[in-house]
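Hi F.,

I've been meaning to write this up properly since the lab meeting, where we talked about keeping a consistent format for the predictions we share between groups. The idea is simple: the sequence comes first, exactly as it goes in, then the structure tokens exactly as they come out, then a line or two of notes. No screenshots and no reformatting. I'm using this chain as the first example so we have something concrete to point to.
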Amino acid sequence: MTVWNNNNATEYLDELISEIPQIRKTGRKSKEHLRWLSNVLVFLEEVFGKKSLFYQGINQLSWSNTGTMLITDPHDYEYEVSQKHNSAFLKDLEQANGILLSAQDQLKRKSIRDVFVETGEQANELIKLLKIGEHKLRKVIREIPKSEKEVQDKFEDILIGSEIHYSREYPHIEYSSKQYIPDFSFIEQNLAIEIKLCKEGERKLIAQINDDILAYKTKFNNLIFVIYDLGNIRDIETFKESFEKQDNVFIQVVKH
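Output, unedited:
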């Protein structure tokens, strides 16, 4: 086994991240994809631990469409199924990229001796919470929401059904002469979740998220922003990029 230090671990992470565009081209379950995934999991297990948020996050990706498929043309069934699986694969690859970038941030901020996770309960809960916005929220919203509260209420319904303990609109955080209140907080996971409804352009939303990050980071280590988009975010990766460079900040864009 490689003896990892901050320098060689960061360099290897750079290599894994740089291979993602090629993996996107070779496709789901290609030999390049499977080899890359195996290398990623071995590395994350050795450096961060099998119970870490980073390892768990990538290990639990399905790389395929696991939901109900609506087939529009029965005569072209195999093609449509293949396209839906490929779309899910690309989505999971984007999520894996974000997780690896976050792992990279950890190595830049902490000694390699401090990033290894010994216990996994909190990591498992974080993974479960990450999956709610990514895989479940859109399924429970049938009509175009008119207000942010509608989306928050649907998210809360999923939390209740999943038997996850949470606080809503708590705590009140004083920062820079203003008061900030996260939509949901999870004390044991050191996590705040903020729900945003994007009805207009991106600029105002970006400013809101930047302000929230500065305030919530004074209280919470982990932040998840779930953006329910009504068709205003054109390039999801560009939108997420600057935010997810920050340690333990996750952005999820859910398209209506």
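Notes:
The chain has a mean pLDDT of 87.
The beta strands are 167-168, 173-175, 178-180, 184-186, 191-198, 222-229, 249-255.

If this format works for you, I'll send the rest the same way.

G.
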